[in-house]
Amino acid sequence: MKVRKAVIPAAGLGTRLLPATKAVPKEMLPILDKPAIQYIVEEAVEAGIEEILIITNRGKDAIENHFDISYELEKHLEDKNNQKLLELIKPINKMAKIYFIRQQSPNGLGHAVGIAKEFIKNEPFAVLLGDDLFYHEKENCLKSLINVYEKEKKSVFALMKVPLEEVNKYGIISGKRVEDNLYSIKSLIEKPKPMEAPTNLAVMGRYIFTPKIFEMIEETQPGKGGEIQLTDAMNKLLAFQGMYGFIFEGKRYDTGNLLGYLKTIVEYGLRREDISGMFLEYLKEKI
Ligand code: UTP
């Protein structure tokens, strides 16, 4: 079965970026002139996804408004015949079929994914974390995962090599290398100490799951901080179906913490043709 649906969990509280995220969802913070979540929707659409469910919460109406039409703004720009700006805003609500549902309380990433069960029904589906941006020069990360799924018919997620001293920030895998970039997963260990980490391959925010993951989430008890952890449900799924990890060769940006957010803006700015020259000059001068 084709992977045509995706879930974007975006119901976290974004406490690491407070006070900015008190009233503005972190997924709506701008990376240059687009909110972070628009890049993620674009990545999903580029990978062939047709329907997207965004998991939000009470404070995140701005995400829904961003993917809706903005009648007054469009009318105003049409009256002024400002085609350039119209071309920027009009396609946003037509990128894919986008739906929203609220997570009633922040019970964890596993819980947020579980809410998508009715929407997904019995299909394989993608999960893209709302605060992780993936930049590629070769192939779109999600597309690579979909290709692996279509070949192997098993759940698969993105991996990246991280420095050994940073393994305690991530979910780390143990597994067997089956192809150049592909690992058959043995187990997942949440935030191990460097001494205890079996590899330095960390799980990143892109996944393809078979619908069996929903059963596993339902069986998962709240773990650390009372949250239902996606990693726990993935470990349960492993016992039934096996899973793959694919090493993504592009770059991943964590926009959910201050330094990560700043690095994202700088690197996207340096790649943006219309400002990169002047921006680079400015940075050189500063440094
Ligand atoms: P994070 O832990 O990075 O997000 O969750 P957070 O909870 O917003 O961050 P801090 O620690 O308070 O700053 C990873 C992803 O899971 C989603 C988040 O929105 C993010 O995309 N998430 C997390 C939910 O949708 N619901 C939750 O209950 C928890």
Task: Provide an overview of this structure.
This protein has 287 residues and is an alpha/beta fold. Helices cover 36% and strands 25% of the residues. The strands form three sheets. It has a nine-stranded mixed sheet with strand order 5-4-1-6-11-8-12-10-9. The protein has a two-stranded antiparallel sheet with strand order 2-3. The protein binds uridine 5'-triphosphate. Uridine 5'-triphosphate (UTP) is lined by residues 9-16, 55, 103, 106-109, 111-112, 129-131, 256.
Can you lay out the helices and strands and say which pair or pack?
Elements: E1 5-9, E2 30-31, E3 34-35, H1 36-46, E4 51-56, H2 61-66, H3 71-79, H4 83-89, E5 97-102, H5 109-114, H6 117-120, E6 125-128, E7 132-135, H7 141-152, E8 155-161, E9 171-179, E10 182-190, E11 201-209, H8 212-219, H9 230-241, E12 243-247, E13 251-254, H10 258-271, H11 273-286
Parallel strand pairs: 1-4, 1-6, 4-5, 8-12
Antiparallel strand pairs: 2-3, 6-11, 7-13, 8-11, 9-10, 10-12
Helix pairs in contact: 8-9
The structure holds uridine 5'-triphosphate (UTP).
Residues 9-16, 55, 103, 106-109, 111-112, 129-131, 256 line the site of uridine 5'-triphosphate (UTP).
